[in-house]
Design goal:
Helix content: 25-40%
Structural class: alpha/beta
Largest sheet: 7 strands, mixed
Shape: globular
Number of helices: 6
Distance between the termini: 12 Å
Bound molecules: 5-O-phosphono-beta-D-ribofuranosylamine
Order of helices and strands: EHEHEHEHEHEEH
């Protein structure tokens, strides 16, 4: 089967990236993860990807002194040179410019650790506990210019337990993220190829 050449963007440990790469071992998985990109050349996930035979690209945003688009133009050129067709943001901790979002409109998705539209942005687990929500989770969504605002593709729910801390809740959500993200990629790419 034809596989969509896909890049994963990370900023840190990359556990969602690992889950995607693991899922892509299945012969019927519709994506080939051909490149892992990070804004932090020291991101632990880059080393893991390289060890697993995946091309990596670290472009340090600090070298662009606040010019976000200049940073993204360098990355975008590399994506095109590598023949990338689709992007999975997986713990990429930079807000994208409308320019990059436009370049990849309809071809870029993100995983967010909350049940959108609740808790866009950062510190979602603390905020879910503080708000007294009984349910929390993760969302895979299309990337649009508004942060965490694109159309929802898939969600996974977990209960918030009485003695949860942000850490215990994050761990429960993360287990679901690792299941949800590959499933969402499978669904989106199978549909667009159909
Ligand atoms: C995940 O919770 C993801 O949803 C969020 O940042 C975290 C990244 O974790 N955007 P990892 O790097 O995939 O382990």
């Amino acid at each position: 089967m034809a596989k969509t050449k896909t890049a994963i963007f990370i900023s840190g440990r990359g556990s969602n990236m690992m889950a995607l790469v693991e899922a892509a071992k299945a012969s019927d998985f519709p994506a080939e993860f051909a490149l892992v990109v990070s804004n932090d050349p020291a991101a632990a996930g880059l080393e893991w990807a390289a060890k697993h035979g995946i091309a990596t690209l670290g472009v340090d945003h600090r070298q662009y002194k606040g010019d976000r688009e200049a940073h993204e133009r360098v990355i975008d050129a590399e994506l095109r040179a590598a023949g990338i067709e689709f992007i999975c943001l997986a713990g990429y901790m930079r807000i994208l410019t409308p320019w990059l979002v436009e370049q990849w409109n309809g071809r870029m998705i993100n995983i967010h650790p909350a049940l959108l539209p609740h808790f866009k942005g950062l510190h979602t687990h603390e905020r879910a506990i503080e708000a007294g929500h009984e349910e929390h989770g993760a969302t895979v969504h299309w990337v649009t210019p508004g942060v965490d605002e694109g159309e929802v593709i898939a969600q996974a729910r977990v209960p918030v337990m009485p003695h949860d801390t942000a850490e215990t809740l994050a761990a429960r959500v993360l287990v679901e993220e690792h299941r949800l993200y590959p499933e969402a990629v499978r669904r989106v790419l199978s549909q667009s190829l159909a």
